[in-house]
Specification:
The chain has 214 residues and is mainly α. It has helices at 50-58, 71-89, 107-126, 129-160, 164-174, 189-212, and strands at 8-14, 23-28, 38-43, 92-97. The protein is 54% helix and 12% strand.
Length: 214
């Protein structure tokens, strides 16, 4: 019946009425395959120093760009200088994505989530106040159910891990994780582009006025 008897935990016969022969069954001792980790490429701001970054940018001879007539060459030169400084202070690194386990997710909560999503879809389509209210009620019910199940799961895990190190490991797994890197710069992209264009125009006018004096 099998070439690996060591994998069989137990076997038996299931009485069924769909055939003249009963169904032969067995339970195998198999290991769950380990999922491969997910990686992304992103800039690391772990050692980023804003003041040093600005100082290094100030060392670049930006005025030389105004003597370049070809737009593509000018852009290529700018990208080369700017990205080299950026790579020095915030290098691109391969990072592993860590997912937070959710062992307390039950079938009832999943069904509640499906119903919440259906109500949300309905409310967006009809735009009726009653449908939006039904969605909000279901949404709050999902949050409440998740909090309650998580609380019970934490209590069970702590009771199973009574020694100090294991207990703190359980607690840390359920604490909200802080960002490993602090957000150093956050601006509206449109404002940033306009500010950069304004700076470039002022620099070019200043550079041209200096050339007229020579």
């Amino acid at each position: 019946m099998t070439s690996s008897e060591s994998l069989i935990v137990k076997s038996g016969v299931v009485e069924v009425n769909i055939s003249d022969h009963f169904l032969v069954s067995c339970e195998l001792n198999l290991k769950k395959p380990k999922l491969k980790p997910t990686y992304i490429n992103a800039r690391s701001f772990k050692d980023y120093d804003r003041n040093q970054f600005v100082m290094d940018l100030a060392q670049i001879p930006w005025h030389e760009y105004f003597s370049i007539d070809d737009v593509n060459e000018k852009l290529s030169s700018f990208n080369g200088h700017f990205l080299s400084i950026l790579e020095k202070h915030a290098p691109v690194k391969r990072m592993k994505i860590r997912y937070r386990r959710c062992p307390f997710m039950s079938r009832e909560i999943k069904e509640l989530m499906k119903n919440r999503d259906k109500l949300h879809k309905l409310a967006r389509r009809t735009k009726m106040t009653t449908d939006w209210e039904n969605y909000r009620v279901c949404k709050q019910a999902v949050k409440k159910a998740l909090r309650e199940c998580e609380r019970k799961n934490v209590q069970n895990e702590i009771h199973k891990n009574l020694n100090r190190s294991s207990m703190w490991k359980v607690i840390r797994n359920y604490l909200s994780r802080k960002e490993s890197t602090e957000l150093k710069y956050s601006r509206n992209i449109t404002e940033l582009v306009e500010e950069f264009n304004s700076f470039s125009r002022q620099w070019e006018l200043k550079h041209q006025s200096l050339l007229l004096h020579f």
